[in-house]
Amino acid sequence: MDLFNYSRRSTNRVYVGGTPLGGGYPIRLQSMTNTSTQDTSACVEQIKKIVDAGGEYVRLTTQGIKEANNLMNINRELRKQDYMVPLIADVHFNPKVAEVAAHFAEKVRINPGNYVDAARTFKHLEYTDEAYDREIEKIRERFIPFLTLCKENHTAIRIGVNHGSLSDRIMSRYGDTPAGIVESCMEFLRICVEQDFDQVVISIKSSNTVVMVQSVRLLIDTLNKEDMSFPIHLGVTEAGDGEDGRIKSALGIGALLADGIGDTLRVSLSEDPAAEIPVGRKLIDYVIQREHHPYIPGRVDPHFNYLAPSRRHTHSIRNIGGNHPPIVITERIDKKEENFNAQVKPDYLYVGQELPAHREPEREYIVDGNRWKGEAHTWPAFNFNQLDLMQACECELKFLFTPYMGLNDEIIHYLKSHPEVVLISQSNHPNRLGEHRALVHQLQVEKLTHPVVFFQHYHEEEEEDLQIKAAADMGPLIFDGFCDGLFLFNQGNLSPAIVDRIAFGILQAGRLRISRIEYISCPGCGRTLFDLEKTIKEVKEATKHLKGLKIGIMGCIVNGPGEMADADYGYVGAGKGKISLYKGKTCVEKNIPQEEAVHKLIELIKSNGDYHPIEEE
Question: Interior CA angle at 268 toward 154 and 78, to 5°?
Fold first, then answer.
């Protein structure tokens, strides 16, 4: 794979009704209904809304035989109204349901974690190699008849692995690792290849963007080694709603799209399903516009591990690099300085030509190098690739603003004897990611350990556009382990406070710097038996002032405890109007009436000593 130059991965073609994917077709968009699959009219109306918004596939939960059979009625009613969208049945726990759904849906999604294996209980199981092989044979016995049915009915399948529902068998053999996630998928794929069934799409999802990206990268490497070219469906599961959901999705999905991976995707938001489609469309359009860009002559660091990257080793300059979390730089040129939110207070303010007349003593200011007057050696200077200014300045911290193509021999020579310099990587290239990556790889090749801050420049008027683009641009750099800081510079009509919040949101979504509470919430489906959107708002309102906690809000048990495995607390639907509360992986209280559940959640957090409000400035 070329780390610096964009091209889409080549895959085989899969026919999903009249809308094929892979094999050079456009990246397809999909969403999922959250209505009961037994309610034909409700499903039809919601599917029409999704299609009218631009959705190309629609998935429906089919938790039982009745739901699977009703796909026939839903499909028939849609065709009557000239909606030809392919339908995807979502199956968990019951292979018989998948076999029924294969007659009425254009594609059936199965979950390897619970198709044959029992539901996850987090128990460690011991297997001899012979016993483990017998478990694989059980999968073959149940899976091959399903493949035969799909061949007969021209039904595609998706092998959809969820990090949150890996089986105890896989977890016991491989641990909670990307290798285990990939093997869960490969067990089924090898049977497909053996049975000469190629109408397969693959997905690996997680609410943890780091796990999701590393697992998909490893999957692609494994597919290549086994000479498979199945198309990939992308998604960050349980991404949440609002700004957090958009940033988290764009970070994870965008990181893979940027490397040419992905043939269909879903942005899973805890909102109206139709709201997912325009977000996905913006993300796809933003990434694929870099096709056929001018060539970037980057040089790969031979020690870089794309499949399992660790944070790049850098030396520490004050609070930048080393073991420090990534910094946030923001600009306040010609703007009245605002009150800063304590949760998202930038580390440095770039003020351009002049320091403010009334400076706050605890605030870190950056001025242009040509305006630095030696007032104090502790104020950083910001230099635009001008070595004469760098040499004249006696600051203990200097920022050198440079594009990859400006990183010439003279600058490299200067850096080797000046450890006080932090580089700010800038690019105006159509594929700015390629140039940012190339700059860091060049530093690595030269054995330079200077920290790197990424300058990302935009002209956005809408918050959502900046959320999606900035997160998509930063995703690969974060997951490659290259990010020592972020400087978002937006010339559109958005307040600096919004830009600051988005910058911190990106770092939090990449699990690099926790500045506020994190919510892991599913988008809901026909299994959800309470008002998920309303509940998320209530939980957020009651906990928004806390810092550092992860709270899961899940519609049902399918992925609930698994996706919340690294959450501190969980709120999971247990039945109609009933909620179960979790502390970590452990259910501590079952079947609480929904109207009491948020109060009980707060009591649980307090009883464990985790109720620590953020101190306001």
Answer: 45
Give the dihedral sign, CA 563/93/31/219.
Answer: positive
Q: Please tell me the number of Cα atoms within 13 Å of 227 on its side-chain side.
A: 2
Q: What ranges make up the beta strands (E) of 442-484?
A: 452-458
- Using DSSP's 3-state secondary structure scheme, residue 248 falls into helix
- Cα 92 to Cα 368: distance, rounded to the nearest angstrom: 59
Query: Residue 612's pLDDT band (boundaries 50, 70, 90)?
Result: confident
208-242 burial code (b ≥16 CB/10 A, e <16): bbbbbbbbbbbbbebbeeeebebbbbbbbbbbbbb
What would the mean pLDDT of 356-385 be, rounded to a whole number?
Answer: 64
- Please state whether beta strands 156-162 and 200-205 pair in parallel, antiparallel, or not at all (unpaired): parallel
CB atoms within 10 A of CB 80: 9
- Determine the pLDDT at residue 51: 98
Q: Which among 137, 23, 39, 159 has a CA at the least distance from the CA of 88?
A: 159
Asked if the model's pLDDT at residue 617 lies above 80, the reply is no
pLDDT tens figures, 160-183: 998 878 888 998 889 889 999 999
What is the C-alpha separation between 141 and 116, in angstroms, rounded? Answer: 10
How many Cβ atoms are within 10 Å of 316's Cβ, its own excluded? 14
Please give the order of strands across the beta sheet that includes 550-554.
518-521, 550-554, 569-575, 578-583, 586-593
Nearest one of 525, 501, 81, 461 to 266, comparing CA atoms = 525
Measured at the CA of 603, the angle between CA 601 and CA 608, to 5 degrees, comes to 100
- Beta-carbon contacts of residue 22 (< 8 Å; ≥ 6 apart): 11, 12, 13, 14, 201, 230, 231, 263
Q: What is the pLDDT of residues 206-264, one digit of tens each?
A: 889 999 999 999 999 999 999 999 999 999 987 778 899 999 999 999 999 999 999 99
Q: Is-contact 217 253, C-beta < 8 A? A: no
CB-CB contact of 307 with 282 (8 Å): no
Contact between residue 544 and residue 528 where contact means Cβ atoms under 8 Å apart: no
Maximum CA extent, the chain: 79
Q: Does residue 569 contact residue 583 with C-beta atoms inside 8 Å?
A: yes
Kind plus residue range of the DSSP H or E element containing 441 = helix 432-445
Which residues are CB-neighbours of 335 under 8 A, at least 6 positions away? Answer: 496
What distances in angstroms separate CA 471 from CA 253, 342, 459, 496, 543, one per listed residue?
A: 10, 22, 15, 17, 25
- End-to-end CA, the chain: 47
pLDDT average, residue stretch 39-60: 98
Which of 584, 546, 578 has its CA nearest to residue 564? 584
Q: Give the whole-angstrom CA distance, residue 299 versus residue 52.
A: 45
**Rounded to two decimals, what is the model's pTM?**
0.91
The pLDDT score that the predictor gives to residue 339 is 59
The pLDDT confidence band at residue 383, using thresholds 50, 70 and 90, is low
| Distance separating alpha carbons of residues 320 and 420, to the nearest angstrom | 10
Backbone angles phi, psi at 156, to 5 degrees: -80, 165
